[in-house]
Design brief:
By secondary structure, the protein is of the alpha+beta class. Helices cover 39% and strands 32% of the residues. The chain contains three helices and four strands. A four-stranded antiparallel β-sheet has the order 2-3-1-4. The mean pLDDT is 97.
């Protein structure tokens, strides 16, 4: 079943986050995922937006999403993401 990883990002030290961002594509391409959106100016339709960015990734299944997120290569670049932003992330199951 298709799953989506949705990340709501609030920059704390943007230079670290930008370094993470610059390395992300090279790591991500080794996995069976698809980057669907990475928007720093989403249009708010309802509620109050308190973040700086939304990222949506698609994976064929939860195992592949977990493989990506737990990979040594992603863990290495994630240090800059953790240093540069607070992130609320969700794993959302797609519809059958």
């Amino acid at each position: 079943m298709t799953v989506y990883v949705i990340a709501l990002v609030k920059f704390t030290q943007e230079e670290y986050y930008r370094r993470y961002q610059s390395r992300f594509a090279d790591v991500f391409k080794a996995f069976n995922g698809r980057l669907l959106a990475a928007d720093e100016r989403p249009k708010v339709l309802d509620g109050k937006w308190t973040r700086d960015k939304v990222v949506i990734m698609e994976f064929p299944d939860e195992a592949e999403a977990t493989r990506f997120l737990g990979s040594p290569a992603y863990q290495e670049i994630s240090r800059d993401r953790i240093a540069g932003a607070t992130v609320l992330s969700l794993l959302v199951k797609g519809l059958p």
